[in-house]
């Protein structure tokens, strides 16, 4: 067992507890229970062995029963489980032996008054995969809607309500009388039969549309259903099923059929009174939900805007700039509280009806999509070894700081001032992020992509941490630090006051920090960075860089060579070996005199070089994705990608291995096979012994974190023979994050000492030194649109930059 995290919070819709004080979220093969008051995780339901696809909270049978905390969960492992999530405790397990993609339980919602208090069987409707008789049936119809008797722990005979090519989402009406699915351009709606017999006939109808339907929602009290399609339209059918779902009286049904009345908007003589269409969204609709009183309809999609429609008038109200496509909208039993799930792995708790965001449950951000031309410039991940945090780039031009021990987001730093909207074309790529050893300083590099061959800009930025935890402020901007060439690597000196940036243009630059205390209405520290030295080697592209543990040696890769420099005097000390392909990663191995180098290409290689002998110690022909070294030892870990042939046979689908080495020994001390290694990262973390439980009488001082290409991660003790679970004191961890800087010295104080007390108010216009570009028109229009100066000022500055100034007057 290991400490796992980084799971998706938005793989399935969450569910509120009956008192709305808890939110149950499907997270991989567990269900995490969060407090709606604090947004922090309280507990988790563990027992499923595959992805949990549904969670259904048992509603209270009386107002006094709101304190009860029971729920049903379904999973791809083929089991349905019943929990008391207040303890938490598993109460019952039903194994139907087929994967369950979705589950609804209408019986909870439709209980006749005369049946209350009576014992009746509880039925669920599940979307499953038919794993049998695959030779007789086409693979196109292997997904089935089945009925399950939860009271008797079995599926209902061979009753199959419907079959589809792929699993769809089952949606149940708030009244519990209907449930339905979307299937391409059709809506299929079933009427839930009476609970008297499990074999009662189930009637259904089909509604048609001309476009692919993406989401559906039932009205809470009326026979109304809404659907959203791929074009952004919202259709509302009223009076659906008046004929098919009528009583068994054939005469009455015949009368309904004979009535020749106009059905505006209804296609193909569907069983509905009318169909109306609304259109605001520019892309597909992902979210539809009626309010509990049925007066409003909530919709959302790719634009990251929640729209509230008033059904009677069609008037709209908006919650804009959420920043990510919406996936789910969930109402709670408390009418003043709702939740929306977003594609960036965040859940926002909303105060209704004002729709203000109260709390945000922040999961780890998913990897951002990069254009093909920018692939291979790094995965944009950096580890803060002392605080147990990871910094990673996001799609909205931010750097997210995520706690690996507490499995929650800490903060976000806006790197690029852009009005990012979901679905916009990528115009800026954050190519690198680096942190100082103590995590108090950060450097980022970004590339503004050229549009139709015009423009393009490389930018290097330096950041300093504020008094609050991981709230960074910009200190220095350098435009085009290496002319037009892109930056290949950025790394900090161990002392933190020096940074090296290498470029594909054939040079590297060493930047020094000049920190001054500026006297003004308040006293604050100002960090500015200037170029200290420039180096190159035979005009070769510089592809990687690293400082030694004491900072006395700088190693820079010049394609296939390793050059060693004195960073203070900018003197070339030595040149090492010649690899077959360009080196993309350099790392000094702790306090030893060894250097690890990883090269990529047709002949990839992992090699270890001895600094005392200036020669190659050993090497392997491996394709390395990441390298991490422990600070206080000579151990290091390498993430290697496996060939496709071996990953399918020997390692059972796992595409990578983590190799733990001692620098002097080519035989790995430990090997772990992993999945999704492409785009992964490794990092050693220093932990506080008082916050880690002992394993076999020993307290691990260093842990190894592996983050895969989907930003899921595991943290474990690499030196323990048995993979025990790493337990961190949650309470102490959270309090340490909130009180960071009060109990001990961190960040600035750990290097330069405590500053005198000063006011927390910041100047309105902080001064940020910058080095201008030779092409000023590249940066004139940068920034948020509402902060731009008047258009007349911009045009004059732009035109002046294009004109040549003459010193002599023309007669």
What structural class do helix, strand and pairing data support? mainly beta
Question: What share of residues is helical?
Answer: under 10%
* Average pLDDT metric: 82
Using the alpha-carbon principal axes, give the shape.
globular
Instruction: Estimate the strand proportion.
Output: 35-45%
Q: Distance between termini?
A: 86 Å
Number of helices: 6
Provide the gyration radius in Å. 31 Å
Largest sheet: 5 strands, mixed
> Biggest sheet, strands in spatial order?
34-35-36-37-58
Number of DSSP strand runs: 58
| Poorly predicted segments | 249-260, 517-523, 724-752, 758-766
Describe it for me?
InterPro entries: Beta-prop_WDR75_2nd (IPR057644), WD40/YVTN_repeat-like_dom_sf (IPR015943), WD40_repeat_dom_sf (IPR036322), WD40_rpt (IPR001680). Residues 396-655 form the WD repeat-containing protein 75 second beta-propeller domain. This protein starts with a strand and ends in a 9-residue tail after the last helix. 39% of the residues are buried. It is 6% helix and 44% strand. The protein is mainly beta. It has six helices and 58 strands. The radius of gyration is 31 Å and the shape is globular. The model is unreliable at 249-260, 517-523, 724-752 and 758-766 (pLDDT under 50). The strands form 14 sheets. Strands 34-35-36-37-58 form a five-stranded mixed sheet, with no helix packed on it. A four-stranded antiparallel sheet has the order 1-57-56-55, with no helix packed on it. The protein has a four-stranded antiparallel sheet with strand order 2-3-4-5, with no helix packed on it.
């Amino acid at each position: 067992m290991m400490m796992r995290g980084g799971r998706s919070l938005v793989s399935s819709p969450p569910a509120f507890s009956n008192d709305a004080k808890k939110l149950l979220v499907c997270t991989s093969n567990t269900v995490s229970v969060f407090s709606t008051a604090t947004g922090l995780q309280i507990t988790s339901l563990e027992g499923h062995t595959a992805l949990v696809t549904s969670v259904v909270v048992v509603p209270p049978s009386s107002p006094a029963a709101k304190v009860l905390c029971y729920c049903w969960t379904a999973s791809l492992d083929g089991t349905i489980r019943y929990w008391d999530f207040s303890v938490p405790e598993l109460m019952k397990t039903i194994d139907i032996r087929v994967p369950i993609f979705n589950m609804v339980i209408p019986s909870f919602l439709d209980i006749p008054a005369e049946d209350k208090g009576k014992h009746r069987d509880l039925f669920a409707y599940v979307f499953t995969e038919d794993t049998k008789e695959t030779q007789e049936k086409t693979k196109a119809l292997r997904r089935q809607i089945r009925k399950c008797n939860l009271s008797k722990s079995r599926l209902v005979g061979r009753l199959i309500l419907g079959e589809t090519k792929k699993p769809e989402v089952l949606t149940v009406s708030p009244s519990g009388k209907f449930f339905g699915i979307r299937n391409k351009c059709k809506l299929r709606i079933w009427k839930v039969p009476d609970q008297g017999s499990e074999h009662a006939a189930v009637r259904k109808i089909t509604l048609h549309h001309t476009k692919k339907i993406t989401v559906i929602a039932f009205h809470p009290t009326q026979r109304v259903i809404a659907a959203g399609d791929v074009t952004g339209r919202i259709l509302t059918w009223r009076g659906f099923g008046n004929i098919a779902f009528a009583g068994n009286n054939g005469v009455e049904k015949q009368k309904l059929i004979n009535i020749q009345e106009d059905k505006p908007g209804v296609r193909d003589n569907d069983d509905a009174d009318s169909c109306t269409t609304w259109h605001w969204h520019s892309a597909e609709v992902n979210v539809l939900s009626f309010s509990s009183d049925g007066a409003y309809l909530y919709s959302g999609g790719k634009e990251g805007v929640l729209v509230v429609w008033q059904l009677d008038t069609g008037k709209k109200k908006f919650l804009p700039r959420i920043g990510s496509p919406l996936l789910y909208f969930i109402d709670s039993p408390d009418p003043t509280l709702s939740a929306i799930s977003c594609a960036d792995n965040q859940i926002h708790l909303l105060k209704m009806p004002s729709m203000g965001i109260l709390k945000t449950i922040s999961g780890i951000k998913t990897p951002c999509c990069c254009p093909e031309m920018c692939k291979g410039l790094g995965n944009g991940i950096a580890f803060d070894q002392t605080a147990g945090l990871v910094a990673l780039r996001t799609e909205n031009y931010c750097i997210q700081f995520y706690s690996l021990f507490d499995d929650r987001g800490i903060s976000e730093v806006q790197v690029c001032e852009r009005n990012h909207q979901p679905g916009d074309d990528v115009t800026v790529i954050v190519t690198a992020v680096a942190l100082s050893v103590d995590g108090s300083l950060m450097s980022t590099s970004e590339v503004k992509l050229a549009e139709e061959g015009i423009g393009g800009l490389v930018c290097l930025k330096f950041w300093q941490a504020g008094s609050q935890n991981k709230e960074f402020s910009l200190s220095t901007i350098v435009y085009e630090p290496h002319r037009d060439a892109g930056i290949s690597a950025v790394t900090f000196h161990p002392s933190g006051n020096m940074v090296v940036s290498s470029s594909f243009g054939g040079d590297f630059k060493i930047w020094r920090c000049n920190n001054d205390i500026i006297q003004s209405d308040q006293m604050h520290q100002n960090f500015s960075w200037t170029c200290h030295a420039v180096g190159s080697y035979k005009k070769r592209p510089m592809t990687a860089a690293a400082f030694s543990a004491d900072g006395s040696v700088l190693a820079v890769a010049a394609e296939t060579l390793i050059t060693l420099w004195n960073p203070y005097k900018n003197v070339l000390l030595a040149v090492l070996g010649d690899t077959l392909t360009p080196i993309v990663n350099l790392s000094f191995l702790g306090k030893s005199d060894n250097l690890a180098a990883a090269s990529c290409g047709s002949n990839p290689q992992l090699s270890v070089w001895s600094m005392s002998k200036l020669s190659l110690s050993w090497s392997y022909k491996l394709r390395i994705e990441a390298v991490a070294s422990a600070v206080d030892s000579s151990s290091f870990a390498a993430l290697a990608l496996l060939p496709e042939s071996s990953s399918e046979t020997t390692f059972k689908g796992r595409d990578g291995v983590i190799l733990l080495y001692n620098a002097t020994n080519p035989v790995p001390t430990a090997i772990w096979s992993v999945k999704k290694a492409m785009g992964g990262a490794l990092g050693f973390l220093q932990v506080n012994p008082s916050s880690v439980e002992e394993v076999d009488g020993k307290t691990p001082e260093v842990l190894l974190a592996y983050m895969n290409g989907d930003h899921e991660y595991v943290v474990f003790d690499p030196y323990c023979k048995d993979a025990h679970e790493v337990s961190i004191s949650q309470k102490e961890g959270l309090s340490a994050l909130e009180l960071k800087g009060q109990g001990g010295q961190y960040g600035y104080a750990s290097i330069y000492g405590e500053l005198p007390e000063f006011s927390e108010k910041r100047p309105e216009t902080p001064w940020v030194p910058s080095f201008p570009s030779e092409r000023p028109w590249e940066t004139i229009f940068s920034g948020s649109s509402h902060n731009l100066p008047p258009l007349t000022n911009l045009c004059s500055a732009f035109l002046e930059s294009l004109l040549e100034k003459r010193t002599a007057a023309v007669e």
